[in-house]
Design goal:
53% helix, four-stranded antiparallel sheet, single chain, 4 strands, DUF3365 domain-containing protein, 189 residues, globular
Length: 189
């Protein structure tokens, strides 16, 4: 009887220490992460576009400065996850990448240099929680705020941005560059 109890407890311990996901689980997290990042991105992008139309760059930058993080948090709360956008070249210091996110960003950059297409990935963190990471690529419309100074990014726009983000690093991008990643942390399965 003691051997059976030991075997059951040992099996439960091993199961709780699982350090990998099955292909099916990985695919499910990729699908969930894709849905969440697309809907959050659409919410942010749609609101930003409306702000650009109604109040120009001043209103758009104000939105990014004061409302983008709360909107992202609202989406995170509605999905029951943690979500953020981060980059190696942040505009808002609150979006600084974690150690794991920096590793992913560097992997994506290396893949670009090797000509390997970027795909979302799922990895377990140090606590065994699944994390979804998806690349965010620069679109042409992004260059008004994230392009190269005196090219796509005007001095006036740069001045408005710097008034809200004095330590801005998020410029000098070209269309198709890796702007950053979506990082979504799910609870342990």
């Amino acid at each position: 009887m003691n051997q059976l109890m030991f075997f059951l407890l040992f099996s439960m311990l091993l199961a709780s220490c699982n350090t990998s996901l099955s292909d099916k689980e990985t695919q499910a997290y990729k699908e969930k992460g894709g849905i969440i990042s697309k809907s959050t991105g659409a919410e942010l992008s749609g609101t930003l576009t409306n702000k650009m139309k109604s109040g120009g760059l001043v209103e758009a930058v104000e939105f990014c400065n004061t409302a983008a993080l709360p909107l992202t948090q609202k989406m995170a709360d509605s999905f029951g996850i943690e979500i953020k956008r981060t980059s190696l070249k942040t505009r808002n210091p609150l979006n600084k990448p974690s150690e794991n996110e920096e590793i992913i960003l560097r992997e994506f950059e290396a893949n670009i240099e090797k000509g390997i297409p970027l795909e979302p990935i799922v990895r377990l963190d140090q606590h065994g929680n699944p994390n979804y990471y998806a690349p965010v690529l620069v679109e042409k419309k992004c260059l008004i705020c994230h392009g190269t100074l005196d090219q796509e990014l005007s001095r006036a726009a740069d001045s408005i941005i710097k008034s809200h983000y004095p330590n801005d690093l998020a410029t000098g991008f070209k269309e198709g560059d890796l702007r950053g990643i979506w990082s979504i942390a799910f609870s342990k399965p």
